[in-house]
Amino acid sequence: RDQVGSFVPAHPITGREVSGVEHAEADLYSGRQVILTPTERTLTAQLQDAEKIWTALGCRVTSMSPESHDAAFAAVSHLPHLLAFAMMNSITGQTHGDDFLSLAGPGFRDFTRIAASDPKVWRDILLSNRDELISQSKLFQQALRNIEQAMEKGNAQALEDMLTLASETRAHWRMGAKRK
């Protein structure tokens, strides 16, 4: 008998860069967002049950199509992981990379924390969502080029405007909340 309709795909928006029972946290899901991504074959009763279970665990539950999920998470999860891995590789590939790493502080630690994630898991994620991720990577590259061009031209105002937009957006960003 076909049981596909009983399956409710879910993505808890939480986690750590380490895995295994030795790193378990009792409150890992508390107050976190969970994205349900039902397919056309997901049964309504199972979807409702899944929502009740996640809510009982203390999660805020949202539903979206699998395609919308993949597009969004290419931007806010997969690309940051890709960048963190690339950042580490760009430094370790340099002649004095080890010396540079010895000087790195909290900002570098925070930016690259997710590069310590399981490479096999992230290999599979990056490949399975590669089309959306490559699109997001191209958008990132254009934003980086814009900043580089302002620097090359010595255009302080354009550079400040781009940095201000990013800084203000990040300062007002709250996990799980939409911008007003």
Task: Describe the protein's architecture and organization.
The chain has two domains: 61 residues, NAD(P)-binding Rossmann-like Domain (Rossmann fold), CATH 3.40.50.720; 106 residues, 6-phosphogluconate dehydrogenase C-terminal fold, CATH 1.10.3660.10. Helix content is 58%, strand content 6%. The chain is built from seven helices and three strands, in the order ββαβαααααα. The radius of gyration is 20 Å and the shape is globular.
Topology diagram in text:
Blueprint: E1 10-12, E2 33-36, H1 44-56, E3 60-63, H2 66-92, H3 97-103, H4 106-112, H5 119-128, H6 130-152, H7 156-172
Order of helices and strands: EEHEHHHHHH
The overall pLDDT, averaged over residues, is 93
CATH superfamily of the largest domain: 6-phosphogluconate dehydrogenase C-terminal like domain
Percent of residues in β-strands:
5-15%
Q: What sort of overall outline do the alpha carbons produce when their principal axes are compared?
A: globular
- Domain module tally: 2
Strand order of the largest sheet: 1-2-3
CATH architecture assignment of the largest domain: Orthogonal Bundle
Structural class: mainly alpha
